[in-house]
Amino acid sequence: MQRFKKATSYLSKKVNSAIKPLNEDFLKTVCEIRMRTGKPLSFVTFEGITYLTKSGRLTGIPNSSAFVVSGADIKESFQRICEYSVYSYAKDISQGFITVGGGHRAGIYGTAVYEGKNITGLRDVSGINLRISREFKGCGAELTSKAFSENLQGLLLCGAPSTGKTTMLRDVARLASDMLFKKVAIIDERGEIAATSKGVAQNDVGINTDVLDGYRKGEGILQAVRTLSPNIIICDEIGGKDDCDAIRQGINSGVAFVAAVHASGVDELKNKSSVIKLIKAGAFQQIAFLQSGKPCCVSEIITAKELLK
User: Fold this and answer.
1) Contact 248, 278 (CB under 8 A)
2) Measuring CA to CA, which residue among 135, 139, 140 is closest to residue 102?
3) How do residues 262-289 score in pLDDT, each as one tens digit?
4) CA 184 to CA 174: how far, in whole Å?
5) Please, are residues 234 and 187 in contact by the beta-carbon 8 Å criterion?
6) CA triplet 72, 53, 13: central angle to 5 degrees?
7) CA-to-CA distance for 39 and 183, rounded, in angstroms?
8) SS3 state at 196
9) Whose CA is closest to 123, among 163, 77, 75?
10) Is the pLDDT score of 8 beyond 90?
11) pLDDT digits (tens, 9 = 90+) for 194-241
12) What are residue 30's DSSP bridge partners?
């Protein structure tokens, strides 16, 4: 709950005050808090969407009694998330999200401002989606044992959004570092795995783990290989050409990779041509699929050979 309270402290005083009295058992299930100008405040849980009423009750069906988010709530929350320095977060805002203390991620949208083909900022922010980051220590034990029981192997985590991919990566890093005494490097492009603040990881990622915070995955992977001699490199949401090219160079240096990709099943994974090329190149020997609706729950583990046959 301390992590949840830290996350909601970035929301407007009015919204934060409305959330505080809610039952803690319910709040522990919340994955996202959705704020849309002029729309009901909603919570995305493991089981679906729930709305808040003006009287502080929860309901599955929004109506005239709903707690409605105002433009002032959005503006105040946006300023808090940016620590009252929007200019300092211009790059993050142009990418659509800001990672706040504790590794929580605030997705932000509104009217896009373009320079040429690139989004350079937003005006008239109209919505915020606050994703709650949590630590579930021990959730990666099965995966760690499966992937590294005999020798270091590449492990690919597949799952739909909100299935716990990042949480699992964090715990695999901790276990490989603390229990297997491997040198681990985390390429934390969005600051969600380790949640580094002022050079210190706020999440427990292990004593033998180096965190390259804010590096683009491709650049971070190459720097880790050149300078840190890692046994394992961990990164989230791969798929771009630069990511895949860097991983390909890394495996040629003898590094084992643990990475995550958006894919809810085998068919969706097979449609990701860049990732399939990596699997064929030997980057990942074990492929785990996470179950939708049950965070950090492994539904199936298959080998690369089984996937490609």
Assistant:
1) yes
2) 135
3) 999 999 999 999 899 999 999 999 999 9
4) 9
5) yes
6) 35
7) 47
8) strand
9) 75
10) yes
11) 988 778 888 899 999 999 998 988 899 999 999 999 999 999 888 778
12) 45
Name the one residue in this structure whose structure tokens are 């009217």: 111
Residue 24, number of CB atoms within 10 A of its CB? 8
Residue with tokens 């992977």: 221
Distances (CA, A) of 256 to 7, 92, 112, 151, 248: 33, 30, 39, 10, 11
Look at residue 293 and tell me whether its pLDDT is greater than 80: no
Q: Which residues lie closer than 8 Å to 147 by C-beta, 6 or more apart?
A: 153, 154, 155, 172, 258, 285, 286
Verdict on whether the full-model pTM lies above 0.70? yes
List the one residue out of 223, 19, 55 whose CA is nearest residue 132.
19
- Per-residue pLDDT band at 257 (split at 50, 70, 90): very high
Contact 43, 37 (CB under 8 A): no
